[in-house]
Design brief:
Blueprint lengths: L5 E3 L1 H5 L2 E2 L2 E6 L2 E4 L12 H6 L5 H7 L12 E6 L6 H15 L9 H22 L3 H27 L6 H16 L3 H13 L27 E2 L4 E2 L4 H8 L1 H10 L2 H12 L8 H20 L4 H24 L16 H7 L3 E3 L5 H4 L5 H6 L8 H14 L6 E3 H19 L10 H6 L4
Parallel strand pairs: 1-5, 8-9
Antiparallel strand pairs: 2-3, 3-4, 4-5, 6-7
Helix pairs in contact: 5-6, 6-7, 6-13, 7-12, 8-11, 9-18, 10-13, 10-18
InterPro entries: Cyt_B5-like_heme/steroid-bd, Cyt_B5-like_heme/steroid_sf, FA_desaturase_dom, Fatty_acid_desaturase
Pathway: Lipid metabolism
Subcellular location: Membrane
Length: 447
Amino acid sequence: MTENKKYITTNELKTHNKPGDLWICIQGKVYDVSEWIKTHPGGDLPLSNLAGQDVTDAYVAMHPATAWKHLDKFFNGYYLKDYTVSDVSKDYRKLYSEFTKMGLFEKKGHGVMISMLFITMLFSVCVYGILSSESCLVHLVCGGLMGFLWIQSGWLGHDSGHYQIMIDRKMNRFAQILTGNCLAGISIGWWKRNHTAHHIAVNSLDYDPDLQHMPVFVVSSKFFDSITSKYYERKLNFDNVSRFLVSYQHFTYYPVMCVARLNLFAQSFVLLLSNKPVPNRGEELLGLLVFWIWYPLLVSCLPNWGERVMFVLASFSVTGIQHVQFTLNHFSSSVYVGEPTGNDWFEKQTNGTLNITCSKFMDWFHGGLQFQIEHHLFPRLPRCHLRKISPFVKDLCKKHGLPYDSASFYKANEMTVATLRTAALQARDLTKPVPKNLVWEAVNAHG
């Protein structure tokens, strides 16, 4: 006897997008992930942000093949009656399948071992230089090398968060804690939560945390309407302080990037000390404790406070290069207001992303972010293959009339500063009053 299938429509699926009632569709089958959200390895945000939608392309992009076998336990018996697949999605899935058959997701190359040896060498040189030399110049160079070490550990932390860079999951977790928490002082748990939200909602002004830097930076005048951040769960108030800071953001951009690491330190602790679900919270805090023991101890070995401040500023300033790199790929690309959608994955990723053109020799410097479009479309693909697949992605964009934007490192900096300048000049328009908040209204109330 043929089984009678139960169907719901896309409009009915959309109604299941509230806490405690979260449904998603993958390849026409509907899954109830209301409980899974509590233990989902990718965190709660991808499920809550995409609930009530067809998320096939996002699921394919973010999950390994082994994850498919776990889906059946969440199947609620319904199928999507009006399930369709666009031509862009068909070609995207076909390309993903081809890369899988080629074994690209499993071939990780030797870059991880080389990077780890390089990081070990940099750390050893820094420690040796501080302990064995009395030269102020040597100590300054050691500070710069420490910043460079943080950049390289950041690339490894990024890679280990997207795919397994080690031989098994336990070793991969060890690599995450070592490169992120212990060496760089940044919680890998915070990074994964933040970065996954960014991938799912790339360049959404209210959902993508990588664009939410009020009151220091804004990339669009739409922030002047005091957008509510769905990531931080609070209103990003555009007040007089914000207006003043944003008005000069194209001048403060590089100086702020030199100390941007302070924000990452703070965000790590804010998450770990919050009531939000964080896997292995104790492990994360222990890793941060290791960093806040060895780094201050190393700085204290310098002969005087002047050199200590110099060392810290040097290490922060050099790693500021990486913070600039993070912003170049998205600050000057198109943005939108609203929740992310699951059925235009390819289009959203290409519209909101900028590649950096460079020679193959400079791939180590950019850590894979130079092929940011490829990385966003195939986030689990090891960075050693991104250059290889670039022509295929470019051809697919051309076929469907989608942008494949790229610029040199210098040009991308120009474009980013130009975006900031445009928003800064708009913020200076005093004919547009800033929205008044409740405190202002209470203070200025009459009667």
